[in-house]
Write a structure and sequence with these properties.
homodimer, alpha+beta, Arc Repressor Mutant, subunit A, three-stranded mixed beta sheet, two-stranded antiparallel ribbon, globular, DNA-binding
DNA sequence: TGCTAATCAACAAGTCGTGCTAACTAACAG
DNA sequence: CTGTTAGTTAGCACGACTTGTTGATTAGCA
């Protein structure tokens, strides 16, 4: 994701207004590796800006997502999560605590076989599930 | 997935009754490579057994899923899909028509790097998105 | 045959996300 | 600085998907 300052510039270019709400969300996402949901982000935002609405958080996230500044990740665990890391990367999920980490996979072009004659792959999503070090430690 | 006959036996073992509805669903899933949703399966089932309820389809699918006889696949495209193929395989999805195919990946143990010290991976899900041969042909 | 699970219909609820309206606020251009 | 207009907010609703509940009926299986 771009820095909050760069995002401000991009929003202005696009004719979007730069409101304090949007700026707050930019800051909350900047460097955020927690893969928050809209709801989670809203809670944090509301601490710093009581009165901000969940609606606005959803909307700003959609805008950022449409602009390609955040990734929209759906792990099938209910809510969609947002990732300011827009590199070509993948995710590991702890099935116990639900924490999500970014991972970079040595993507030796994966070969696949099956009933997929002529299929043109545009993107690949890999999700590793398992147990994180914390949870493994606790349950041991 | 096991054959309908084997499933009948398994259900009996587990103390579940073998009803015509369940048997119908077993048959509809057997060898099914369409990755149907509960709803889709219900529609087909209803043709052969008018009066069957969507509720029953959902329930039977949950049972099968809990028993490990079908895979529960969530591609983030709305409804969950069910796959009677419970091999260790992955999926390709056409982003145009939504068709899903099973694929077997030459899973050279994927190496990943990132903030994942001590993470114990139990399973890996790979989803390839792109355009299927049909859609590529139509749009060309 | 009888116990009990399964099914069904109908309705509800829950989650996640979006649409709409109306009123107020404030960003930005001129 | 002012006016235009986008953005925000509250509130209510809906839509998709899935599960829960209830109460009556059906039917599997011992």
């Amino acid at each position: 994701m771009k820095t909050p300052e760069e995002l401000v510039a991009r929003f202005r270019e696009q004719g979007y207004k730069v409101t304090p709400q949007r700026q707050l969300i930019f800051r909350l996402l900047n460097g955020n590796t927690a893969h928050p949901t809209a709801e989670t982000l809203y809670e944090v935002a509301a601490e710093q800006m009581p009165g901000i609405s969940l609606r606005t958080v959803y909307q700003t996230l959609s805008e950022l997502s449409a602009m390609g500044e955040v990734q929209h990740i759906d792990l099938g665990s209910g809510a969609v999560r947002f990732d300011p890391n827009v590199d070509d990367h993948h995710h590991v999920v702890c099935s116990t605590c639900g924490v999500v980490h970014d991972v970079y996979v040595n993507q030796t072009p994966l070969r696949f076989e099956g009933d997929v004659e002529g299929f043109a792959v545009h993107s690949t999503r890999i999700v590793f599930s398992g147990e994180c070090a914390q949870c493994a430690h606790l349950s041991a």
